Amino acid sequence: MQSTSYQNSNSNFSKKLFKLFKGFKYEFFQPSLFVNTDYLIERSGENFRDQAYSFQDEIGKNFSLRTDLTLSVCLNYIKNKFKAEKKFFYFDDVFRKNRANSIVTKQLGCEIINSSELQKSTLDVFLTIFKSLKIFKKEVKNFKVQFGDIKLFEILIENIDLPERWKLRLKKHFCRINYFEDLIQILNSNQKLYLKNILIDKKKYLHLKKFPKKNISGRQVQEILDRFESKINDPRDFYDGKKAVKIIKGFLKISCRLSSLKKNLEFFCVKNNLRKDLFEERISFFDQIKKTIKQNNFYYSSQTGRDLEYYTGYTFQIVKISNKKKLNLARGGNYDNLFSALGSKKKIPAVGGAINLI
Predict the structure, then answer these.
(1) pLDDT digits over 43-76, tens only?
(2) CB 107 within 8 A of CB 67
(3) Domains and CATH numbers, the chain
């Protein structure tokens, strides 16, 4: 690995950080300055396109200054054809822009890739980030840690009485918050659950079946026919969309201290005629956190992690409370689908976290 001013620095700050990450058996990684813009969008979603400094080379390829360092770590793992678990940490600049000005931020973080014990690795990453923040204890006061878990929502949806296609749709778009709200409104109105809609679809289906090779707005008619067949064969008359929405909205309101999460989830399940221990296996992870670190400022929210599309499981966010405003100090979580989006033929589980140092 190449050295950096951070690695070679004699400051106590740098030494402490380096010792901490080495103690957790992380390997230092020097990220590249530029990344393929398409990869950036795969990693962070379309919202990041406006925040990135993007360019185009002579042959029309788009690339961007890195907006975070996770992507560089993942691409490095693929490039070097690693197969075993790898633990990396990094400390370097990231570049973002907004309407007002440009932002160059120092980012300190770590990633564990291809772990066979993902819960253990998630705890490892969180503890590393949390202890790194302790080095800034003079500056960091009045902070709180907010945890979330995307999988809890998926477990809930699998146990609600809804058509399979609705379950897939809600899970897929859970982190696209505005579009998700549109779906909830449609589901609440039962607009697409009545038989008359199925009959209308069937009329269109029979008409289009005469032109299977035709293109409509860039889509193959056969693709549209396949979707219609799925809808026609899916009897949705017997599902109560309003009831499902009520349950989903109730779940999304859950926000409490981590110490009372189990009690809150059990109450929610009983209230909605769900199995009382529905979430018990997943939330055992939070019991590990409570046993490892004794803190009274650890919280859970069903909303935590929804603003980034690439999170797939446990998430955490550390924020500073100042004058009723929240400053995002650090965040992280599981991202099991990113490697597939980057071209990996194998699904590779991963977890990471980073501190933003402005």
Answers:
(1) 655 555 667 777 777 787 887 788 788 988 998 9
(2) no
(3) 5-154+255-357 (3.30.930.10), 195-235 (no CATH)
